Amino acid sequence: MSTIITSHINTDFDGLAAMLAARRLHPEAELVLPGSPERSLHEFFLNSCGYVYPFKSLKDVDLDAITRLIVVDTRQRSRIGDFAEIAARPGVEVIVYDHHPASADDLTDVTRAEVAEVGAVVTLMVEKLREKGIALPPDEATIMLVGLYEDTGSLTFKGTTGRDFTAAAWLVEQGGELETVAGVINSTLDREQVALLNDLLSSRNELRIRGHRVILVEASRDHYVSDVAMVVHRLKDIERCEIVIALLRLDDKVYLIGRSHSPALDMGALLAHFGGGGHHYAAAAVSRDLTLIQCREKLIERLRQEIVPRWTATDLMTAPVLTITPETTLSEAAGILTRYNINVLPVVDDRQAIKGLITRQVVEKALYHGLRELAVSEYMSTEFEPVSPDTDLDRINELIVERNQRFLPVIDDRSRVLGAITRKDLLRALYDQEGVMKEGVLPAEGMRRVRRKSIKGLLSESFPERLLVIFRNLGELADEMNCGIFLVGGVVRDLLLRRPNLDVDIVVEGDGIALARAYSRRFGGRCHCHEPFRTAVLMVDGYKLDIASTRLEYYDAPASLPKVEESSLKVDLYRRDFTINTLVVSLNSQSYGELRDYFGAGRDLKERSIRVLHNLSFVEDPTRIFRAIRFEQKFAFTIGRQTLHLIHNAIKIGFLRRLSGPRILNEIKLICAESDPLPIFARMSELQLWREIFPGLKRRGDAATLAGRLQGVQEGGHLV
After folding, report:
1. Of 97, 238, 417, 472, which alpha carbon lies 20 to 30 A from 317's?
2. Distances in whole angstroms, Cα of residue 113 to Cα of each of 21, 177, 587
3. Whole-angstrom Cα distance, residue 167 to residue 131?
4. Do domains 191-306 and 313-427 have the same CATH topology?
5. Kind plus residue range of the DSSP H or E element containing 682
6. What is the model's pLDDT at position 571?
7. CA distances from 401 to 342, 394, 398, 408, 447 (A)
8. Contact (CB, 8 A) for 655 and 558
9. Higher per-residue confidence, 239 vs 409
10. Rounded mean pLDDT of 170-187?
11. How many whole angstroms separate alpha carbon 56 and alpha carbon 144?
12. How many C-beta neighbours within 10 Å does residue 23 have?
């Protein structure tokens, strides 16, 4: 019976160091390398301290006697050689220490797996040593420092974490020598490696794939060259490119080594298609079945699928954009700016070509100086730089940040305004771009300024089959009509909360009424349309679907009914009551089941918070106060601090008193329809809503009595 500690073939310093740490945790174990280590490790090991540590090779071990196998710095079968067969034996205990992402090639029958998202597996091992109070001699601490520094690029790689720094500090405290580390990490290339580097640089092929610059390099040798990963690392430093991939034919195998510092490409996922693995930023693979040319062609094909497209103005812009003519007076412009709560208006001629921009600040100052009836053409700005739909994010960032242009019109080749990009749009894009690598929620179809992920499976689990068929038919019909179509609102919220809800709301980027009528003609069902609000009700097989065109609403006065105009999806969502009701799910064929989150609704669902989208939400529609309280009690959520402040403000100013009786009655009916309305009524009393609804209520006791009677009516079955 024996215990073996091993790592991956071509063991590097991180693997070696982790093996030494594992032996401190399992002192009865033997150290066995599954294959030849990298040359730099081999030389360091022989010249420095190899004689101290009894490493063995496979031929020195009785494989049949192994009862426990400890694997460090990998969990892939293909990377541990003959030990993969031993790990699969019945009765063999398998323990894994790793820091790589999971893959399809991972060992399955693992007794215990210690896995952490850190820059080096040494970090995980050091944490285990510290937990057990195990001290290290200086030479082992130095080897572990070398492993940690090598795998984190001297603590500079993007995958480096605070835990890696903490582990490095502890190793220094244990006597690890940074001077030795620097000598090993910064070792010079030998003559053969320099020749290989030169060949790679000479073969340099720059590709533009989905808007990103990718450097491919190739070289061939009839024999194996050691430490090719170090050569590629040096090449990456020379190229200064975010994505570098080397294809090396060495002997009868093709080695693929990739480095990515772009959130647009997960290198580990890319090279997994070649049987390899690694991290988002660094990975490798070995192909024994494909030629160099075949590997190159397959690699380029996979890159075109894996790289998330570079953001362009089309992805960031808000559309449509309100415009005015040069003859519009400053007082009229002020009214439009206030009505729609915007800060800039493009000025266009009769051909819709842009001529200038007028800002809220300029208009307000002009009105202050009594210039109400002058045309905006007198004071509009003509010194601005528009962008085309395919302008990339770097250029947009330059114009907004470096040139301080806060509003970028997006125009076509005839100077007609297609959309606009603001500082807020840019900030959202930059934030989401950084989040790609952390959360992995964006699909390969494209980077957007919105969180996306597929929930096809959840749709299938949550809705009846017939309703799913209706969704598919609607999506295909919307494709034909060149419309975007989405599930929206409470049905999506409840889908994620795993609550049953067949009250289906659908929003269409396009003509929702025309889509509903087209569905009724082709697939059957009854369609009822309401033209002023651009909405339709579709009755199909006993299901009721509310279909609306994307629209914006504005209010001429507080608590008044809204007026409706055409808008984009994002603007449509912005008019909704709370962030948790802004989630949408695409029904179009190509993106079916794709969840989109424009306003951080996923975060608020996770935090169980009720938040409004803008500070005038309760001013424009005070009935939202009732819904905020109803959702808070129904879902066991909490009204956000700022939202609660806005509720108090709206009540204090008296906006609830401007609501009509029927609108208040409708909200009370919705509350009474809940399974337990009493907590909602109690919360209304706490916020003093009853005094606003029924001014005759003078004491809190009256509200409590009324709430109790309402519950009694409900329990008696007389609720209407």
Report:
1. 472
2. 16, 31, 40
3. 12
4. no
5. helix 678-686
6. 75
7. 20, 10, 5, 12, 21
8. yes
9. 409
10. 87
11. 19
12. 19
Ramachandran category for residue 703: left, alpha or beta (phi over 0 → left; psi -120 to 50 → alpha): alpha
Which fold would CATH assign to domain 2-185? inorganic pyrophosphatase (n-terminal core) (3.90.1640)
Bridge-based pairing of strands 55-56 and 30-32 is: parallel
H-run or E-run covering 420 = strand 417-422
Q: What is the pLDDT of residues 194-204, one digit of tens each?
A: 888 889 888 99
The pLDDT tens digits for 386-434 are 999 989 888 898 898 878 888 999 999 999 999 999 888 887 777 655 5
- Find out if CATH 3.40.50.300 is the number for domain 313-427: no
Mean pLDDT throughout 131-151? 92
Taking a C-beta distance cutoff of 8 angstroms, is the pair 148, 14 a contact? yes
- Residue whose pair of structure tokens reads 């006697």 in the numeric block: 65
Distance in angstroms (rounded) separating the CA atoms of residues 515 and 524: 13
pLDDT at 47: 45
Give every CB contact of residue 684 below 8 A, 6+ residues apart in sequence: 626, 629, 690, 703
Length of the chain: 720
- Residue 538, strand partner residues: 527, 545
Among the listed residues 153, 234, 225, 236, the one whose alpha carbon sits nearest the alpha carbon of residue 191: 225
Q: Which CATH class is domain 608-720?
A: mainly alpha
What is the rounded CA–CA span in Å between residue 699 and residue 683? Answer: 15
Please write the tens of the pLDDT for every residue from 181-232: 887 777 677 788 888 888 988 899 999 888 788 999 999 999 888 778 778 8
CATH number of 191-306: 3.10.310.30
The domain covering 450-607 belongs, at the CATH homologous superfamily level, to Beta Polymerase, domain 2 (3.30.460.10)
Question: What is the CA 438 to chain-centroid distance, rounded?
Answer: 7
Q: What are phi and psi of 55, to 5 degrees?
A: -70, 140
Both tokens of 661, joined, read: 């009786």
pLDDT in tens, 29-57: 999 887 655 444 444 444 444 445 677 87
Distance CA 243, CA 233 (A): 12
Predicted confidence at residue 359, as pLDDT, reads 92
Residue with tokens 């510290």, as numbered in its chain: 130
Taking phi first (over 0 means left), then psi (-120 to 50 degrees means alpha), and beta for anything else, what does residue 658 get? alpha
**What residue segments make up the domains of the chain, in order of their start?**
2-185, 191-306, 313-427, 450-607, 608-720
Q: What is the mean pLDDT of the chain?
A: 84
Pairing of strands 484-488, 594-597: unpaired
Enumerate residues 6+ apart whose C-beta is below 8 A from 447.
264, 308, 309, 310, 311, 315, 432, 433, 436
